[in-house]
Amino acid sequence: MDNGRLCLLFGADEAELRQLCQKVGLPAYKGGILFKWLQAGEADYNQMTNLSKAERDLLAARYPLALPAVRQEQQSADGSTAKLLLDFGGGVMVELVLMLYQRSHSRSRHTLCISTQAGCAMGCAFCATGLSGLLRNLSAGEIVAQVLCGQLWLRRHNLGPVTNLVLMGMGEPFANYEQVCQALRVLNATAGQNIGQRRITVSTCGLAPQIRRFADEGWEINLAISLHAPQDELRSRLLPVNRRYPLAELLAACDYYTEKTHRRISYEYALLRGVNDGPEQAAALARLLAGRLAHVNLIPVNFVAETGFWPSSDETLNQFAAALQSQGVETTVREKRGLDIDGACGQLRRRQSES
Ligand code: SF4
Hints:
Blueprint: H1 14-23, H2 30-39, H3 53-62, E1 69-75, E2 81-87, E3 93-101, E4 109-113, E5 117-119, H4 128-131, E6 134-137, H5 140-156, E7 164-167, H6 177-188, E8 200-204, H7 208-215, E9 222-226, H8 232-238, H9 241-244, H10 247-261, E10 265-271, H11 279-289, E11 294-300, H12 314-326, E12 331-333, H13 347-354
Parallel strand pairs: 4-7, 7-8, 8-9, 9-10, 10-11, 11-12
Antiparallel strand pairs: 1-2, 2-3, 3-4, 5-6
Helix pairs in contact: 1-2, 5-6, 7-10, 11-12
The structure holds iron/sulfur cluster.
């Protein structure tokens, strides 16, 4: 059975919970109490002891609650990465990735990578998730529930709170626009998890109209673009979305985003051996981003047998980075993390569903 409805309340904001309480005959302010419990990851009404027994029973009968079951848990040998396989029922499984940056002298950073859809319809050629197609959108409650599972995991390991979020797991966030925005509102709320907008990054493969719409939300959320190719012909082969929104249209939407939010945009570029990692692509990428408030994140990919793409060598990767830097493009190489656990997006989930 698909248990998606058991997560619904996790995606409700405080005002909605006040209304919900009124609807079932409880004082509105109880909605604020409920919001705090839900955003602390509490799924058992019996633990909400500042609600009366009668109130708890009423809510439990009307709005049953559950967080997804953790089916599998892995941690890399160096302790820097953990992955949880979350089961929402009905064959909907998502991977939650936790990246743990421990610092002795300042606050540790705990970044969660969360999913917005079960599967994905975008069909990017190099992506394991894209191979299986879209099962369904995740609700705001299911998106928030992933963060709560991460928060509970951190608490169990005596680590601090979730500090950063990246929406870079399964799915295209802007293909599930309303639910993603609702989840972001809830996660950002000061009475809840209070994750700052500047600590959240939404990654898109390039849905230009939604980028413009997101710019108009009035937020300061970071935007990452899965670019992966600096020329239309190649990009259309790797990311079919480029046939709908070619580079000129995508970059114009990105410029609009920068103009409205003043945020630097991150361009993600997975280096694929012999496909997009040559000097001519580095030069074209530098030309494309010249004069823009941009940052390139080069990604050393993990090999996923089904996609048929191979990672570039370290030497090629360093040359590509140096070529961009020599043209004044801010560039970093993403750290390889968690390679001793299933590294690539979708791998853990695929193995589980195949077993
Ligand atoms: S890379 Fe992202 S947008 Fe493309 S198929 Fe994979 S999950 Fe979907």
